[in-house]
Amino acid sequence: LSLLLCLCACAAPPRAASTTGGSASLVVDPTPPHLLVGREVPLVSAVREDADGRVLILGLWADGRLVWSEDRVFGGPPYHETHLGPKRTSDALHVFGRLFDRWEGDLLAYHPPGASRVELIYGAGGKDRRLASWHEAFERNPEMVVTERGVEPLGKRSRAEVLAGCSREYRRFRVLWKDVRRMMEGLVPRKGPRVTLAEPALPAPR
């Protein structure tokens, strides 16, 4: 079992084509994508970081532009966009701010050094607050769970049962992660015009 856990923890997570849950069942726009050049860093973003660099998953800019990848775990093209409008953008930033204020500190991370991971980033109001974790890619496999100890096979246990046995800090982290992700998904419409990102500006790595 120890060898199995080591192999699971060290292996790269398999990439799947399906998107994460949420309410956004995307309808791909058949029109050719137009070019979107990211000159400003998004105020809220989900970014994938691995050995190949950083890739945008979802970004919300100050002007209300929302850009998202069809693959909400690994990111990358194809991308779509919409505009939320001033009030909805302001309301969304307010909610994200309250979510990220649930803990003290600028970075809350659960992943091995150098591991492929997702960062959820809040950069409004001069802040730079981040959550980072590697669990989403592994947990696409319904037989796996990620805890603060590493990657584990579920066996006959449920994922909720395993997580319930984790530390209070890790359980709080997973709840906060889920709430931020749910808020992001709630902004994504069922469809939006295709866009191509050319050298998008992303929050700098830590």
Q: Gap between N and C termini, in Å? A: 34 Å
Sheet bearing the most strands, described? 9 strands, mixed
- The chain-level structural class is alpha+beta
Q: How many helices in DSSP terms? A: 5
Identify low-pLDDT runs: 1-37
Explain how this protein is built:
By secondary structure, the chain is α+β, with helices and mostly antiparallel strands. The chain is 26% helix and 30% strand. It contains 5 helices and 13 strands. It has helices spanning 2-10, 86-100, 135-138, 159-164, 168-187; strands spanning 27-28, 34-37, 44-50, 53-60, 65-69, 79-83, 107-110, 117-122, 129-133, 144-147, 150-153, 191-192, 194-198. The strands form 3 sheets. The chain has a 9-stranded mixed beta sheet. Strand 4 (53-60) and strand 5 (65-69) form a beta hairpin. Helix 2 (86-100) packs antiparallel against helix 5.
